[in-house]
Amino acid sequence: MQLELRARAGASAAIRALLDLALPKAALIRNGAEIEVPTSEVLEGETVVIRPGNKLSVKGAVVEGSPLVDESMLTVEPMPVSKARGDTVIGATINKSGAFRYRATKVGADTALAQIVKLVQEASNSAPQTHQTP
């Protein structure tokens, strides 16, 4: 029982660490103006603005700019990846170069980070229970 409790505590800590990667707010272009909204309110198809050093809030496709993106959180690739118009960018990764804009393609529960959290939760909930023998 002790081992199971430790495993569940470890899974809970992993989920908290993953959730800490999520960006609470996103800068968008709405009605021609740049505004800041909670990431949970970003809609598919909206234009997201990312400045140097900022995390990307959701998955999308570059529409303006040529950023270098640190994807090591997902790919463990140590070098930033060069992106161009039309290339996919992933939420929770980091913009290492100039400002750019991208169109949101996966938001909310459809983001890579949300899917990873879901998998960790499912694995934690479906872990076999251990029994002590007398």
UniProtKB/TrEMBL annotation:
<keyword id="KW-1278">Translocase</keyword>
<comment type="similarity">
    <text>Belongs to the cation transport ATPase (P-type) (TC 3.A.3) family. Type IB subfamily.</text>
</comment>
<keyword id="KW-0067">ATP-binding</keyword>
<keyword id="KW-1003">Cell membrane</keyword>
<keyword id="KW-0472">Membrane</keyword>
<dbReference type="GO" id="GO:0005524">
    <property type="term" value="F:ATP binding"/>
</dbReference>
<dbReference type="InterPro" id="IPR059000">
    <property type="entry name" value="ATPase_P-type_domA"/>
</dbReference>
<keyword id="KW-0479">Metal-binding</keyword>
<dbReference type="InterPro" id="IPR027256">
    <property type="entry name" value="P-typ_ATPase_IB"/>
</dbReference>
<dbReference type="Pfam" id="PF00122">
    <property type="entry name" value="E1-E2_ATPase"/>
</dbReference>
<dbReference type="InterPro" id="IPR008250">
    <property type="entry name" value="ATPase_P-typ_transduc_dom_A_sf"/>
</dbReference>
<feature type="domain" description="P-type ATPase A">
    <location>
        <begin position="23"/>
        <end position="121"/>
    </location>
</feature>
<protein>
    <recommendedName>
        <fullName>P-type ATPase A domain-containing protein</fullName>
    </recommendedName>
</protein>
<keyword id="KW-0812">Transmembrane</keyword>
<keyword id="KW-1133">Transmembrane helix</keyword>
<dbReference type="GO" id="GO:0055070">
    <property type="term" value="P:copper ion homeostasis"/>
</dbReference>
<dbReference type="GO" id="GO:0005886">
    <property type="term" value="C:plasma membrane"/>
</dbReference>
<dbReference type="GO" id="GO:0060003">
    <property type="term" value="P:copper ion export"/>
</dbReference>
<keyword id="KW-0547">Nucleotide-binding</keyword>
<dbReference type="GO" id="GO:0005507">
    <property type="term" value="F:copper ion binding"/>
</dbReference>
<dbReference type="GO" id="GO:0043682">
    <property type="term" value="F:P-type divalent copper transporter activity"/>
</dbReference>
